[in-house]
Design brief:
The complex is a heterodimer. By secondary structure, chain A is of the alpha/beta class. Chain A contains five helices and eleven strands; from the N terminus they run E-H-E-E-H-E-H-E-E-E-E-H-E-E-E-H. By secondary structure, chain B is α+β, with helices and mostly antiparallel strands. In chain B, about 35% of the residues lie in helices and about 25% in strands. Chain B is built from 25 helices and 28 strands. Classes of the chains: A alpha/beta, B alpha+beta. At the A-B interface, helix 1 and strand 6 of A face helix 7 and helix 9 of B.
Chain lengths: ~240, ~725
């Protein structure tokens, strides 16, 4: 499977994602410079974390105008797997690939911590190696992770089962008491209606090796590979 | 702008005379400014240089000692660590957010200037009393500034320290350390350059910010300092991030002969320093410098401290490729001058020469002052302080107070604002071990790093205090399983022209040098920050040590948390009862006095070796050094982090319980291990002549300590609440 990691000026988790795909999963991966206007033959695209263009305006607001973005949008619309992590999630929102917007954390401070995530469903290309209701321990690090959308959109997200991860405590209770940033409905990650685009604030690439204290995150990338292989298998049959 | 005279620029009468003598005439205003910034303490180290020479600087692993942008030590496999610590105290006192942010920016540039990829930041911070509203404002601003800058760069902030003491009330300390990783064959040194080589300026445009910052850093803070807010620079971490990527690419492609960041004294210092290395001269045209403001004079351009700028000396014929790389990253790169052969530093404004100064005199010619220190009267008075005359208080109450002291309490409020995991190397995160541990991708190795200084000890006894700072750093590294390699230091003191301040410098440097020599941790880089004084007096002398260590195999590492019920708890080292200078005296008795615990360097060295052997054999489940708060606090922290209790009986030590439990005497660590490993541990410790005290075991959910007729019994969750929330409560 071939992954592409888009590099915007100011991306800073690009190398971390690249490392997990190449050295942990041992799959193919390339960096894609944001000034490219076409994507090569990729099976999945990663929009990594960081501070694209310094994020001096709204997070992701400038990156979404990067030359590469129309190609990413086109790739997503054709059903390609796209995962946006942290700043990548923010860019997906700005680009309109996912609904909603990001506000500053309720504390008005940057938060670096480890959060418990509750996996809401496992019938997606990103969670097929996880169980529904399973808890994951995943690092978070963001200043604007307070996901917001209007009531109608939230209703739609719920109706379509688009909420993939919520913040919870160690016992799996995903109530507002265990929400690190104030996001609506404790949302940590959502997918699009079609299920091929995921945006999440927590960093699965930071918990994909034992030496870093946990491996819960790697399951998301392994799920993507698995789902890709199944598609290939289906095509062959 | 109103013109300053030479005294206002910080030059002494005799220095001005010397300048006139060198030049054979009166300097013009631009020239005078150039002399003043280069001969400031900040750039010229004129008060500290003779003392700095006494540090041991060599060792088998040292690739680069002091004198470059940062020090370099070999970590095997053709890799090296590049590191340095630097102060940004005065700017942070005036404008905490930008002062701290640009402090991070500056030290990061020092690291990538040498071709290294910055992999971690640490910072050592000191503030006045946290009860004070202005102090909280400074504290919050500094932490946010460090966080926002480092987080945006994507360099994890993995460690450091925060202390509160009234001596820092108007003069906080902000010392930033950065560690980089480099392939030894890709190290870039700031050496210029052949005659005729162009000088390229890259990065941000030059503005009027930070004019005379170096001079400002070399005088005492006063009421008037607030007017010097324009001396504080403004940071742009996005620009810095682009510079890092572009500059590292230049080095990968071997395109540069020399690279120098623009720090204190801006263009003036970076240009003259890069030319001085080979005795060359330089000429530059200020009109070619991209500016962001109209009407800037040559004087303003030459000493502006606008951030995120680099000076590049290209290899012959490589200018075009260099420009291409900077273009890719959207950065300006312009040729502003060239290297000459006559040793003169010439400044042009177009065709007109507006300043001409001999470069060698400007750099190496900076006057050096060997001053005479004098022991102040407080030194002997404090040593004689009678601790036995103090009433003994209940140790349970004392422990509660200590756990809630901001100097001991969890620093989570601070480090949760720092991205400490980006780059996916951080293996022991802040708060979990005595030092941060990072893995080196593609190898089995790990590196550890820490910053330490107990400035109360240094104040009470600079010689012992200097030794203690180095020992604590080395011990902290050993406690996670890393062999201490080398250190950098940031020497923060008051006004060196005062004899007792100079004595503090002299004595503490002597102590640090002795410890560094004994522990084989040479000093490879550093920075000096003097004149840390306000009308209320000088700060405590604060020579901060930043040390790096190596774990040959990162699998053998250990953190500080107790793990399993039934593990035994062992004190390695002596039961001691010196209480002088302890946090206990300060917090429970309101006393900052007493004789500082005596350091035994040989014992410290043996303890470090023992800890490394034990961790190397995976014998320990936890390891935590005994420092602020003494044995009781060390054990409580291990329990809190492990969320499990312990029961400890201290026997074989007569005298007051508070002395045994809260003494901060060095040379000791508290460890936990499986009971059946005790015989082997004892044998290994005997070999190293280190005492073994089996004091109890991990059990239950309470902190239980018995010593004579005194007892502590506190639920771990209660202790965790006090310790965990103390700083947060103050900052709400």
């Amino acid at each position: 499977m071939r992954f592409g990691v888009v590099v915007f000026p100011g991306s800073n988790c690009d190398a971390d994602c690249y490392h997990v795909i190449k050295d942990v999963l041992q799959e193919e991966v390339d960096y894609i410079w944001h000034k490219e206007s076409q994507l090569g033959a990729y099976d999945a695209i990663i929009l990594p974390g960081g501070f694209s263009y310094g994020d001096y305006l709204r997070t992701g607001a400038i990156a979404r105008f990067s030359p590469i973005m129309p190609a990413v949008i086109d790739f997503a619309n054709r059903g390609g797997l796209v995962i946006g992590i942290c700043n990548g999630f923010q860019i997906l929102l700005e680009a309109g690939l996912l609904p909603g917007a990001m506000l500053r954390n309720q504390s008005l401070k940057f938060i670096c911590d480890t959060a418990y995530l509750k996996v809401k469903r496992n019938d997606t290309p990103f969670t097929n190696q996880l169980a529904a209701g399973q808890l994951m321990k995943v690092p978070i690090a963001h200043g604007e992770g307070n996901y917001y959308c209007d009531e109608a959109t939230l209703e739609e997200l719920r109706r379509n089962n688009q909420i993939l991860f919520t913040y919870s405590n160690a016992a799996g209770e995903d109530s507002p008491d265990f929400n690190p940033n104030g996001s609506i409905a404790n949302i940590a990650g959502i997918i699009n209606k079609e299920g091929n685009v995921l945006g999440m604030m927590p960093h699965p690439e930071r918990c994909s090796e034992e030496v870093l204290g946990g491996t819960d995150g790697v399951n998301i990338f392994v799920s993507m590979v698995k789902s890709f292989q199944e598609v290939i298998q289906r095509c062959k049959n | 702008m109103q013109e300053l005279n030479y005294r206002e620029m910080g030059l002494l009468d005799e220095e001005y005379e010397k300048i006139k003598e060198i030049m054979g005439r009166e300097p013009n205003y631009l020239e005078l400014s150039i002399w003043a910034v280069m001969w400031s303490e900040h750039c010229g180290y004129k008060n500290s240089r003779p003392l700095l020479k006494t540090f041991p600087t060599e060792g088998p692993r040292v690739i680069q000692g002091p004198g470059e942008n940062a020090g370099i030590v070999d970590i095997g496999d053709g890799q090296a660590l590049v590191f340095k610590i630097e102060s940004h105290n005065h700017p942070s006192a005036i404008e905490p957010y930008q002062g701290a942010a640009t402090g991070v920016g500056g030290i990061v540039r020092d690291i990538f200037t040498m071709g290294a990829r910055p992999i971690a930041s640490l910072n050592s911070l000191r503030f006045g009393n946290i009860e004070d509203a202005r102090v909280r404002e400074l504290f919050a601003g500094v932490v946010a500034g460090i966080g926002d800058y480092g987080n945006c760069l994507g360099i994890p902030t993995v460690g450091g320290e925060v202390y509160f003491n009234p001596s820092y009330q108007g003069n906080p300390l902000v010392n930033a350390m950065c560690v980089g990783l480099v392939n030894s064959d890709e190290i870039a040194l700031a050496v210029a350059s052949d005659v005729g080589s162009p000088l390229m300026l890259v990065g941000a445009k030059t503005g009027r910010d930070g004019i005379h910052g170096a001079t400002f850093a070399s005088e005492e803070l006063s009421e008037k300092s607030q007017q010097k807010r324009p001396s504080v620079q403004v940071g742009d971490p996005f620009m810095e991030k682009l510079l890092i990527e572009a500059c590292l690419q230049l080095i990968k492609e071997d395109l540069v002969a020399g690279m120098q960041d623009l720090g204190a004294a801006g263009l003036t210092s970076s240009i003259s320093e890069s030319a001085s290395k080979k005795g060359r001269g330089v000429e530059i045209d200020v009109l070619k410098v991209p500016r962001r403001e109209k009407g800037m004079t040559p004087y303003e351009i030459m000493i502006s401290e606008s951030q995120e700028r680099m000076l590049i000396v290209p290899r012959a014929g490589k200018e075009k490729r260099i420009k291409e790389i900077f273009d890719t990253w959207g950065l300006d790169a312009v040729v502003i001058g060239q290297v000459t052969d006559d040793g003169m530093f010439r400044v042009f404004e177009g065709k007109k020469m507006v300043g001409e100064v001999p470069n060698a005199e400007l750099t190496a010619g900076c006057p050096v002052y060997v001053r005479a220190g004098q022991e102040p009267s407080y030194y002997q008075e404090c040593k004689r302080f009678d601790i036995d005359a103090l009433p003994e208080i209940k140790i349970g109450e004392a422990l509660q107070k200590l756990l809630g002291s901001p100097n001991i309490a969890s620093k989570r409020w601070v480090y949760s604002q720092y991205d400490y995991q980006v780059m996916t190397n951080t293996s022991i995160i802040p708060g979990n071990g005595d030092a941060a541990v990072l893995r080196i991708k593609g190898t089995d190795k790990g590196v550890a790093m820490t910053t330490d200084c107990n400035s109360r000890f240094v104040y009470l006894d600079p010689y012992q205090g200097g030794m203690l700072a180095v020992c604590e750093s080395a011990r902290n590294l050993a406690c996670v399983g890393a062999r201490p390699l080398a250190l950098t230091n940031c020497l923060n003191f008051g006004n060196p022209e005062k004899t007792h301040i100079y004595w503090q410098m002299q004595e503490s440097i002597k102590g640090m040098a002795a410890a560094a020599k004994n522990l084989n941790t040479p000093v490879v880089s550093g920075n000096v920050s003097l004149y840390n004084e306000t009308a209320a007096g000088a700060i405590y002398p604060t020579p901060v040590v930043g040390m790096v260590g190596l774990l040959p195999d990162i699998k053998h590492r250990v953190d500080m948390s107790f793990k399993d019920e039934g593990d035994i708890v062992v004190l390695l080292g002596r039961l001691r009862d010196e209480l002088g200078g302890s946090e206990y005296l300060a917090v429970c008795h309101g006393v900052e006095s007493g004789a500082v615990p005596v350091v035994d360097l040989d014992e410290e060295k043996k303890l470090i070796e023992l800890s490394l052997e034990l961790i190397g054999k995976d014998m320990l489940k936890s390891c935590h050094d005994i420092s602020e708060g003494g044995l009781a606090v060390a054990l409580a922290e291990s329990a809190i982090k492990g969320n499990i209790g312990f029961k400890v009986n201290i026997e074989g030590q007569k005298g007051r319980a508070d002395k045994t439990l809260f003494s901060e005497a060095p040379g000791r660590v508290a460890v936990s291990l499986e009971r059946d490993k005790l015989p082997e541990l004892t044998a290994m410790a005997n070999n190293k002549e280190i005492e073994v005290h089996v004091i109890g075991q991990v059990e239950g959910s309470n902190i239980c300590i018995n010593k004579g007729n005194q007892h502590i019994n506190m639920a771990v969750c209660d202790a965790a609440k006090i310790w965990g929330e103390a700083i947060e409560c103050h900052m709400k």
